[in-house]
Amino acid sequence: MTASTTPLALDWVAADWGTSSLRVWAIGADGSVLDKASSDKGMGKIGKADYEPTLLELIGQWIEGVTGPIPVIVCGMAGARQGWTEAAYRTVPCAPVSVDELTRVDTADTRLSVSIVPGLCQMKPEDVMRGEETQLAGLLAGNIAENAAICLPGTHSKWVSLEGGSVARFSSVMTGELFALIGGQSILRHSIGGTTDREPGSTFLNAANQALADPASLTASLFSIRARSLLAEASPEDGSDTLSGLLIGTEIAACRPFWEGRPVHLIGAGPLVARYAAALQQAGVEAIVEDGSGLTLAGLAQVRAGMKEFTP
Amino acid sequence: MTASTTPLALDWVAADWGTSSLRVWAIGADGSVLDKASSDKGMGKIGKADYEPTLLELIGQWIEGVTGPIPVIVCGMAGARQGWTEAAYRTVPCAPVSVDELTRVDTADTRLSVSIVPGLCQMKPEDVMRGEETQLAGLLAGNIAENAAICLPGTHSKWVSLEGGSVARFSSVMTGELFALIGGQSILRHSIGGTTDREPGSTFLNAANQALADPASLTASLFSIRARSLLAEASPEDGSDTLSGLLIGTEIAACRPFWEGRPVHLIGAGPLVARYAAALQQAGVEAIVEDGSGLTLAGLAQVRAGMKEFTP
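Predict the joint structure of the above. Result:
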């Protein structure tokens, strides 16, 4: 999990503590990644008392012999009410992260100085995010325009409109969770199978186009997947591609106010992002794929840089 | 389950064999219901070899001492591929039932003469129904107009357009199943609770109106139920009413081609039908509630009457 690191070189620790996992990075004074580690002890699996020991399990070697408090900057669900310490949402419109609105966490180990990056909330319509705000900060630290449309596909996809470097508004769409539930547990499960790891083909594109043209008909279209397997012996892979296309197409249609007239920065990698990019292309929208893996770390580094400015 | 019936009075047996249950009625020569019985041995719980014994368990007393074959007319999922004997779908447009297109079932007990009423299929867009076609026949046997819009709310709601007494087209909407899945198993389950047995109130109506005005946004609206419970401490009952309103409103909006410019015959009873009636009213549509309980029996009686005409 961890490797030997000269404690003296450690400047701070970055932590992405989500629902299902924890990832940590040891960062040197020059900003370089000295080491990294991960654990499956996500927020969904542990209680409040487990956070500090879980963190120390991963970073204990990094802080051996260290005296002064080491900043540990945490984003994600560790800041939820059921997490380590609740980090109250900041309300949009606002910058993705604010170095003077971090939530401090008391620890028994005095070598740790833990801060949690709060998530964002929106009051009308009501919405929340935790973790994505840090990726947005990472994106803004790069060369992205201060006004942009952003899509982060996933279990609960997020669509974001950045204006002047602030999050103006956002919307969560439960596409990934609906795909898993409908495909795995509804009557459609008999007509759905295989993986969605392959390139988006014509079945996917046809379904996405159908949903883009008539997004109001999603719930009236789903049962056709079952009927098609009964009447036309459509394959489980066809069923899977159709469900995926209908849900992603519906999501893109519903999020038109975010992308109309401008390209979409699509954060992530792999087959899922390829599907979103293909469906966006059907809608006539340019997709700029941004590799998601480094954005969380880049966003946490922005927070660390801000801390240094405030406490030089 | 069953009561004593004079075997001599029995003319035929009506059976509604669905996924989750079996209901049977003993019908006399004058069309009166002599007795009835039911079992939870629906199609989903039994294998092919279990059908005849299951039926005999319920109707054995009725046919004691009977010699000549007693017609048993069955509708529902017993005619599915995984059921007793597959009754191939009849393709719309067509009359809901056709007495010369019944599927005969061979039985070991020669006192039984079993016929299954086939379901209906539609090729474009693909759709299927099993059981509802018999309710439609029952409805047409009453005083309903031969051109009408019909809605049968349920796990998989059916919308039907009758033209000249035929089923011109229909559409299945997975509203009931989606409500159960999303409310019971998605992240929204933490924000949803209580029953939906109460009268449709303002939270339901507001959500239905929102969906009627913007049905394309369903998947983008669902997460607000979670966010509202986090940010505004909305009650689980509010969450439940909102989910119900969003799904029913979306269904009605998607099925506009069925109801536009005419009233809807709403088949069923109880709180669910009250919700559909209230949501239809929000859309400016008149709902004519038809009690669903007797329609299956009325439809099966239509088949029996047709048999007598063909074999007097």
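Chain A has a mean pLDDT of 93.
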